[in-house]
Amino acid sequence: MNINSVIPALIYKLPHGPRRRALFTYYNRRLPQFRNPVAFNDKINWRILNDRRPILEWTCDKLAMKEYAAKVPGLRVPRTFWVGTDVRELADVDLPGHWVLKPNHRSGCIFFGHGQPDIPSLAGMVEKWLAPVEAEQLREWAYSKSRPLLLAEELLGKPGSPPADYKFFVFEGQVAAVQVDTDRHTSHRRRLYLPDWQPLEVTYGPYPLAPLEPAPANLAEMLAIASQLGLPFDFIRADLYSIDNETCFGEVTPYATSGLDRFVPASFDAELGARWVLPPVADAVTN
Fold first, then answer.
1. Residue 199: its H or E element
2. Which residues pair with 171 in a beta bridge?
3. Where are the domains of the chain?
4. pLDDT (tens digit, 9 = 90+) per residue, 41-59?
């Protein structure tokens, strides 16, 4: 039996507050500081435990995200082909040669489809996708406000070769860092850069450092769009793609890796945290 899978399973049996602190300690390998947070990951967890402002309410609903992103000039938002809860309806949808299926209210679940789907096989695969995992197990409040739906949308990039995922850490409209994830479904690697594309020797989470890569040709546009997406928020992570030098929308998230992916060295966790001014508790806690 793998102890690395047993310990988290036991942690998830704890009540919410102790569970969150135990998860943080297990993954970050240090004690949490949630009451007076300074580092970035502590502040993510403070937000999970305390922040119930309306501005965050829609930020884990993929359809709402796309509506928000569609207002940004120059940003391509993937087309939505179908929305529903019963994938049998896809039999009557005119799908393109390649498409993706994902839940509207969850993270990490995705199916890459081509042509008309094998409905019985697909139904079996997505059977548990409507479960509110992030809302119930991780208690990430904005997920509890997201509509439990499935959506089929446009595939970005070339079939079988997911594009690099550029994740912008935005504080009040200012980009502090860019996380680049490559080969996410095979040999996942990650690298952090400053906005001027200076690479950082910082690991973030369990993924090895990705090789250095040149800045995308449209980096300036991506930075401007990420800034606009993040302007209303004290912090948001804006995820974008560069497809044939065109900036495409991925998602936004208020809960970057649930505050559980560890920074090494930890000094960068503190540097990001210094950029984030949290709202007063009286403003954040509304229920």
1. strand 199-200
2. 174
3. 79-155
4. 999 999 999 999 999 999 9
